[in-house]
Amino acid sequence: MFDFLKRNTLVKRGLASGKTRRRYSRNDFARRLEFSQYVKGLVLAGFVAGLALLLFTGNLPEPTKNFVVALLFLGAAVTQLWINQPKTFDRSSRLLLVFGVMLVQLAVTEVVLVVCRNGTFPFLKLETAALIVPYAFAPLVLSVLLGRNHGLYAAIFVSLWTRQLFGALDAPLLVTGLATGFTAVYLTLQVRRRSRLIRAGFGVGVALWLMALMFGLIGPIDLFTPRANNWQVLALQSALAIGNGIVTATIVGGILPMLEHLFRITTDISWLEASDLNHPLLRRMTIEAPGTYHHSLVVANLAEAAAEAIAANGTLCRVCSYFHDVGKLVKPDYFTENMNFERNPHDDLAPTMSALIIIAHVKEGVDLALKHNLSGRIVDIIQEHHGTSLVYYFYKRALQQQEDARAGGKIMKMREDDIPEVSEENFRYAGPKPQTKESAIISLADMVESASRSLEKPTPQKIEQLVTDLIAQRIADKQLDECDLTLAELRIIAERFRFTLMTMLHTRIAYPKQDTKMPSMRDDSLRPDVMAATKKPDSAPPVSAA
Fold it and tell me: Full-prediction pTM beyond 0.85?
């Protein structure tokens, strides 16, 4: 409170700025909840309570025995998640998402069974319940949000619990659930359009229809006497099976945005929607910092190609690259790519002040990103794309000025204490270092693209040497210590950088100068068909050379 009053007093006196920078800080209390063992226990206890409610109220024979079996399945599920997906198991929100989605599917399955048993709708009988159960709901949701391994995990265990709700571990029903779940995961390995979900739903419906035909869930069908078949019932059952997958996928597509916002997950669909270059910040950049805008586009191409080569998220890299230098909008003229040829503003500044301006673009970028409600992953990469690296140019310039001051001080007989010391820490970014593969790739792409602009007459050998040296410098400076990139992946990234830079920095042939002298309009020798009489010079390059 007192600090606020003091700040207002200083602002009124003109001794402080009225602007308050937005800060990106994680809530410590939320972080403790995220990794709390007690919260994980509550999530699992809630799932157990849900299973008990479904099994003991479902009019099933031997509910206690079924509940014990369900608990054994739950023990296997928790163990499997702990061993194979430790990052998901460590986070309470991810654990809630996985078991919450599976419990929702089981609850819907129980509702379907109750409706079919009560005969509320004449065309929905207990035999048709196996055709309208949403087998693919949990696999679809978890495959899109968390990846294919989580989708397969859900397909296996939710199928086991679903069979218990039917009253027995019937092998055909279990295989049907597994087949539809695996089909849903296979068809959603790369979902970049919401329409792809509907296609996946249709595929799930076809898989369910084939399984139902194989195990006699549709029919009976008499192949030898077709007239004996009830084609109306067969058509209804087929429509229910195929429509099951389409309706499930439609519902999943509708709730995905809510789940993304609730659990702070960004899917490839959302990343692709965020890649629109008409975003207000990007449009400002095209006008106020066109050099930075072009630099960001090239970094996006480099980062996306490298990320796809090592099976990282290329779409995330592209979108985050667009915004990684957005903080340069505050002082665009102080960055090389936006400078004009007449004046360098750093010529009038001390190296320490120049370094402060350069380093500040990270904080300014975070401020603008929070103001425009950009994704948390974008904010993280804005903070991390320089790590704790050194602003080398101004650091060397400060050392040179210090040496000049010492040389002059000897002549003027100045004391050593009167010469200011140059601290390397004042010329380093605040960090943190890149924490993910995608963040490290963008950091390397940003450095490589900037350095490649200084190459004169780029050749494959020069580009390869430049990329190799820069990545080695980052490794020696320990900027990649906190991400999980391997040396093999770094070698692949360097190769992709080299190939992409070669395609962008290729040279063109030198065109011969054209004679721009125009004949005088008063020349009496000018003929009306002069253009038809003009002959193309023999030295003109072919059109394809452009």
Answer: no
Q: How far apart are CA 522 and CA 531, in angstroms?
A: 17
Distance in angstroms (rounded) separating the CA atoms of residues 67 and 71? 6
Which CATH number does the domain 270-391+428-504 belong to among 3.30.530, 1.20.120, 1.10.3210, 2.20.100? Answer: 1.10.3210
Cβ count within 10 A of residue 285 = 26
**Rounded distance between C-alpha atoms, residue 211 and residue 205, angstroms:** 10
Q: Is the pLDDT of residue 231 over 80?
A: no
Q: What is the mean pLDDT of the chain?
A: 85
CA distances from 482 to 32, 97, 163, 242, 369 (A): 21, 27, 44, 47, 24
CA atoms lying within 13 Å on the CB side of residue 482: 12
3-state SS, 309-372, equals HCCCCHHHHHHHHHHCCHHHHCCHHHCHHHCCCCCCHHHHCCHHHHHHHHHHHHHHHHHHHHHC
Q: How far apart are CA 306 and CA 318, in angstroms?
A: 11
Are 339 and 397 a contacting pair, CB within 8 Å?
Answer: no
Rounded to 5°, angle at Cα 210 from 208 and 213: 110
Domain extent listing, the chain: 31-265, 270-391+428-504
Q: Which residues make Cβ contacts (< 8 Å) with residue 31, sequence separation at least 6?
A: none
- Quick: pLDDT tens for 240-284: 999 999 999 999 999 999 999 999 898 988 898 888 899 999 999
Q: What are phi and psi of 458, to 5 degrees?
A: -60, 135
**Domain 31-265 fold:** Arp2/3 complex 21 kDa subunit ARPC3 (1.10.1760)
Side chain identity at residue 510, one-letter code: A
Cβ atoms of 283 and 323 closer than 8 Å:
no
Helix (H, G, I), strand (E, B) or coil at 390: strand
Please say whether the beta carbons of 328 and 289 come within 8 A.
Answer: yes
What gap in Å lies between CA 166 and CA 131, rounded to an integer? 13
Concatenated DSSP letters of 217-258 = SS----SS-GGGS-HHHHHHHHHHHHHHHHHHHHHHHHHHHH
